[in-house]
Amino acid sequence: HITPEKFYVEACDDGADDVLAIDRVSTEVTLTVKKDVPPSAVTRPVFGILGTIRLVAGTYLIVITKKKKVGEIFGHAIWKATDFDILSYKKTMLHLTDIQLQDNKVFLSMLNHVLSVDGFYFSTTYDLTHTLQRLANTSPEFQEMSLLER
User: Where is the SAC domain (predicted)?
Assistant: First the structure.
């Protein structure tokens, strides 16, 4: 969900009430609940957050807008991110000079080119950041940690 003040990322899990709120001015990230999302927010589906990047115009949020299932590991779905949106935290570009606007446009073009290259894979239930051998040699405490905590 997008408002002029914040981005709200809502979990799609059944029964999940948590919403990630990203302040577009302070860039502060907090956890809130669905009822805090204003009804006026523009809503669009995303499948994940790739991250943020700071360019000439300011900070941008990169989200995954399309995915394709490419396989499974031990019953866990592995997805390939196939399309992205680059969302500006800033509401306007009026603070930039013509040269800065052009530089920002070039950087956005370079970023779009990198995102168009194959190779962005993810899983919401399996740790793709460690090899199977390394996962087999980890402690039970590590295995019990969420993917975010790892």
Answer: 47-140
Cβ-proximal residues to 22 (8 Å cutoff; 6+ apart), any chain: 6, 7, 8, 9, 28, 29, 61
* Diameter of the chain measured on Cα atoms: 56
Tokens of 83: 């399309």
Residue-wise pLDDT tens digits, 107-131: 999 999 999 999 999 999 999 988 8
How many residues are listed for the chain in this entry?
150
Q: How far is it, in rounded angstroms, from Cα 45 to Cα 38?
A: 16
Q: Is the pLDDT of residue 148 over 90?
A: no
Give the CA dihedral 69, 77, 34, 44, nearest 10 degrees. Answer: -10
Residue range 2-36, pLDDT digits in tens: 999 999 999 887 778 899 999 999 999 999 999 99
